[in-house]
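=== Structure Prediction Worksheet ===
Name of assembly: unnamed complex
Input type: mixed (protein and possibly other molecules)
Chain count: two
Listed entries:
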Amino acid sequence: MRGKWIAGSVMTLLVGSVGILYWGNQQKDEVAKPLVVMSYASFTASWGPGPELAKRFEAKTGVPVRFVQADDAGVLLQRLKLVPADVVLGLDQSVLNGARSEMRWLPHVAKVDFPHDDLFVPIDWAPVGFVYREGELAPPSSLDDLRLERFKNQIALEDPRTSAPGFQFLSWIARGRTDVELKALIQQMHPSIQSVSPSWSQAYGLFTRGTAKLVLSYMTSPLYHQVIERDGRYRFASFPEGHAVHVEFAGILAKCARCDRAREFLQFLLLTENQKLIMEKNWMLPVVELPATEDVGPFREVMEAARYLKPKDMSTLQLSAAERERLLKLWSEASP
Amino acid sequence: MSRLSRALVFLLFLAPYVFSLIVAQGQMALPEGFLGLVQNSLIQAALSALFAVALGVSIGIGLLGLPRRLRRSTEAAVLVGSFVPSIAWVLMWMVLLPNVRGLTAIVILHAVGASGLIASAVVRKVRTRWAGSLELAMVEGAPRGLTWRLGLLPLLRSDLVTYLLTIFASSLSSFSIPLLMGGAKAWTFEIAIHQAVRVHSAWDQVAALTLWQWVTLTALLFLSRSRMPLRAGAIDHRESRAVEDYGWKPLVLLGVLPVAAVLVVLLSSALRGVQQLETAGLLIDGGELGSALLMSIFVAHFGGLLTAATALFFALSRPSETERRLLSSYVAPSAVITGLMLLLMRAESVSALADALRISVGCALVFAPVLWRMRWHVELSTLERQLEVAEIFGASAKMIVRQILWPQLRPLFYWTWGVATFWSFGDYAIGAVAASRPITLALLSRTLLESYRLEAAAILIAFGLFLGFLSYLFFSNRGERNVGRKMS
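=== Predicted Assembly ===
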């Protein structure tokens, strides 16, 4: 009897939940048609910049913004073919060529003093390099240092086949090197590599858990620990030879339902106060100059340090599909 | 009617393949280095399967040696290992054995991850099918080792082949463990599919790879089964003392210790995790966390129910041996393809309900064939004789379902519901593609992981595992309780 009662309750709960969810859905459908923005989950999360940006945009224009999460770039492009959206936010430079060839985009009207083209607007960026904890090891000061004995089994990398920062690392070390030199560098780095993770989050997890002492990450990563965790041990190892950069772009889909509002939204993203919000909640650097009077705390120091690493133009940011293919092949051949 | 039912089930499972072919516009192309890929994948999957089955059977023997109550909870605890996310296994490995990498690490991690499920299946099989034979062996004074070597293991041969194929299939589609443990040279089907989708958008390669994977498994299953008679004793759900005597308790440690180690690693920084949840604002306003919790419970139980119902629906439609084998050989294509295909279900809707339903259906598509292969196929084959006799004596189709099939398949239905619910609690692969926002605990933990908050993600993962554990215990007990009542 008790078993039947429990089974009945479970079924009632399931059916009830469907009913409640359906009712909630009906209620939502009655609200005004929103601007649909597709972006990655940590941008749209409640602790990310997405919800606050949506609130500000609605207050300014009266148009609600609905964020829809996207997986990484390759899946995002397929998802866009199935799911209606007006704006895509978070495409990094390595997928722009693919995005251009697979989808149709509308030109934007945003003005920004940062490399861009007529289809994609940069929204944030950060140099990519190695993060360590002070006191655990003497940091590297160049790519060549990564081959040193003292880094043996200490570096957590991301796989360039599956991760954007991983690919940016590969294109960074390929810069100015012949194929033979690149292969030799990768092979000489083998003993230092502790792990090659499929994603940034996994590599960073291995680092924060202490199984790796150096991780390929962003120049802004130490800021998270400093600001949120009040932990000042995290540092970015600056290389005088320069760094890879990660730039995130936004674009307007040609099949947009609210195209004018989408254009407005891209301009809105570049306003100083919104760039500041993105910087503080997405842990990336702004693509516009924030006034010197603006209080940005420890971000100011990183912004100053990153100034000379800013990309010069779009051509230095992007690689052709063939070049990308060639680098990935070299990586596979030379890797441990 | 039953033919139509079976056709519907096959259509449902074929949908992701048809979808990938449509996206590929009917084109297929093999990636460069395909032979190396096949070689790497097959070696890694075969070794993982062999080791997983050996470990699973050993743990199963250990579980059989425990008294009933302790066995139930220990079985569920051992099963936890099959649901722990791979990153937790990798972290544990890197803490305990930082210098052991490559094929050895991949095989061991696959095996410890899968062994709990095999152990659970072995325990159930021996208890419900061979308890009588063990009583006889006890009366005859047969020693434990000899009974297993000459008696039970040969009798379990067809089940062991099934488990081998199940783990083989899941190892073929493994992703994070080969990449993290095997380094950049790691090259498996799932990695190749991932690369084709995410890096190159080469859907012609995706279609070819998924189809090749499926055809390989189908061929293996048909070849192995044609030489393997299915054997089973009569179903007997009495608790037999002989079963306990022929188990060997210490072997349980092989299953319990790795699970304990992985849970310790997962929760070793729980305090920091709570702080991270707080800084993410998830503890200040509990709404998001609460809604993710409720949604997880709904998605997991509904996904579990759909999985169990699909298997039961197919079983009650009286499939032929070939049809049963076909479903056993089915491997759901990559979660990316299944997730994208599910977007065809009201793609424009971003409501939580639509997201939840998509994830639940996706879980059923992925889990139903795995669990069918593991237990339903063999179980149904062993009932064939009874069905034939019933038909000869003129039993109607309705009577066969009500008096023979349902009473004997009911425990399996609940077990399937429990296992699939446990699995669905942890799904983020399908949800990341099919859902429009992080509506479940698993998706929320993935988002936290992408926002520097590993420890907070670990807490949510552990909480999801705990809920899955409770659900599994509930359904598994319910299935067995019903049988006891029916039998008495």
